[in-house]
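Batch manifest, entry 17 of 40.
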Amino acid sequence: MEIITYVREGAITHEDSLGNRGRTGAGDVQVMSAGTGIRHSEYNLEDETTRLFQIWILPDRAGHAPSWGTRAFPRGDRAGQFVVLASGQPDADDALPINTDARVLGATLKKGETTSYNLGADRLGYLVVAKGSVEIEGKTLNERDGAAISKTDVLSVLALEDTEVVLVDTVP
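Output type: structure tokens
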């Protein structure tokens, strides 16, 4: 599995059988490729509540070597636009790598802002509201709501209040 963890609030600490150890804070992302096998633990060692989204995606083939990585993605860098957080596509230089034809993106929008993403009518999307509320295709989504998106060339997202969203773009 390709396991992408997006920390919404607080932080998690990761340890695994490869000797990796690290802390991923709010707004940041960690990626773990389970590959041929890995033992791991994730803890909330903070004095505050931790909230996160964990996205599991099938890899493009069996047998990948296991791996782990984490990266800061400052919310200001994704203000008003989608930024690629994790990707299996070769053109995503700053994203954490995953072993599948998918992207995980994040955006922060101020109330009244709109942003668009060229999904492609032949791909699938899944949008989750991490904070706030948005409107897509005439439907309102509130915090922790998700929407499956298909047959949509360009996805347009309107923030109904200050908002943070996560989008998964993948093949059918």
